[in-house]
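--- STAGE predict ---
source: upstream dedup step, 1 unique chain passed
mode: sequence only
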Amino acid sequence: MNPTKLFSVISKHAENKLYKIPNKIFKNKSELKNILIYPEFHEEKQLAEFLNKLAWYLPNYGEYKIEIIAKGFDVKNTLYKIPDHQYKFLDEELLSHLKIRDSKENISSLTTDLILVWDKKEMKKLPFKLVAISKIVDPNFYSHTESSNFRELFFETLNKEQTTDLQSLYKRNFTNLLKENNKNRVTVFATGPSIDKAFNMDFENSFNIICNSIVKNDRLLEQIKPRIITFGDPVYHFSSNKYSTIFRNHVLKTVEKYNSYVVVPETAAPLLLRHYPELENYIIGVPKGNGINFPTMDKFYVNYSSNILTLFMLPFAASISDRIDIIGVDGREKKEKNFWKHSSSVQFDELTGTIEQAHPSFFRDRLYTEYYKRHVKYLGDIINFGEEKGKSFKTLTKSNISLLNNRREK
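--- STAGE serialize ---
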């Protein structure tokens, strides 16, 4: 099915179904009442892109007074100015909740709970007392600051009761996941070029964990029948850009077909659940803890890292089985300019440009060689930690990471 058509079908399905737990969780307002967007907008296209992002990242916008500084044009025109790299989330309902503030007004006298700063250069003009309640969401600022702050925005608006209810939901789903495991091994599937070799292997007797855009490949999914889908990247998976939106459509389709569980960071899970309440019985938002940990009900957390393999895939695999097989972790060749190669069969290559346009600093400020060194070292730490606990790690395909290649299945 066409991804855009799929999105509309699933959204309509969600609207017609009663999901008691998410409705209960999200019905109460948090302490956050007033949000100011700063600084002033001078162009409709700037405002359109920002408000479209806000419609995605803050789905409970109707509970707040949202103020913008944008004198001189009709904000309703922003509905027609959303850039091509963004999927459209903005509608007239959000626009009706906006209060337009006069740019000449002295902002030092403002009473607000949160300031979203979309242009960091203007932050120096803010009175000191307002800096403490500011969150930078400037896509041209440093690295993943904007995308991560936006991804966690909805989570930070929840009150303690809502957060506690969500944690109970995640643990309930985690318990159900553990109960259904009747396999003698776990296989984790990454997105390197060698993932294509999976078509020549048998995974019927394996509990299978996939990541990221593997959900694109219907043929591979049918062979794997994934029990867990893991992802967590702020620009590839939790953004309003077209890549991220199409990716989530495929996640929903995969969950619907295979009843797969969805494992994501705790700070991103509420955003996903609010937009897609049909994930109620499948989503597992995992808290951040200190030190390497294979999650259990008593110690339900992971040590956060910047790679999905070490963040969720291996920790959850080691929680489920003592035998962990790995495929598609090819590592990085010396001549690589970016992170590493991916198989085109599990990437939305034609949509990658929409990420770069929406979040330019995410790629601009990356030191790929340093990132890779840290990744390989931490991967070794996790494997050593697991082997000390009697876990066995084997790679089914050749890897440029020597510590994996030394554990290659013969």
